[in-house]
Amino acid sequence: MRYTIAYFFAVLIAVIAGRADAAVGFRHFSIDDPQGPPVEVGVWYPTTMTPKLEAVETDQQMVARDAPVEGTGLPLVVISHGHGGSYAGHLDTATALANAGFVVAALTHNGDSWRDQSRPTEIWERPRQLKLLTDYMLGAWSNHGRIDANRVGAFGFSAGGLTVLAAAGGE
Length: 171
Hints:
Low-confidence stretches: 3-21
Strand order of the largest sheet: 3-4-1-2-6-5-7
CATH architecture: 3-Layer(aba) Sandwich
CATH class: Alpha Beta
Number of strands: 7
Strand content: 25-35%
Structural class: alpha/beta
Oligomer: single chain
Number of domains: 1
Shape: globular
Distance between the termini: 60 Å
């Protein structure tokens, strides 16, 4: 009996884990930066389309690439990576948030990414780039009308955490 219960829960966990990425859309693009080169962006969001294994930068993820966005009044989370990272550095967090009904937009900071470490000490550029992304998502993104502009949050790790604190007004 004990093995039957354990087997049941193992199957249940496997089914739930298999469905974890069942409804996540993904888009990859660049936005114009009037003070520098275009900023690379990845966006994860709820969708009803069936996902498939897709390359997301140097990783792979179960997403529905370029699928329609599902829902309205969706909260937005913007993500800033740490030194030498990229938009895809927190794709697991982005996927979990999209599964929970969030639109998640992450950027690759120009001058401080794994591809371009030409200006890592120009830390003041990072909050400006994060604001550029936030403004784009709320105003110019093709599905900006599905986002609730009163429910916007930010997440960052390491240098990304400093970026988020500075963007929020920290000194």
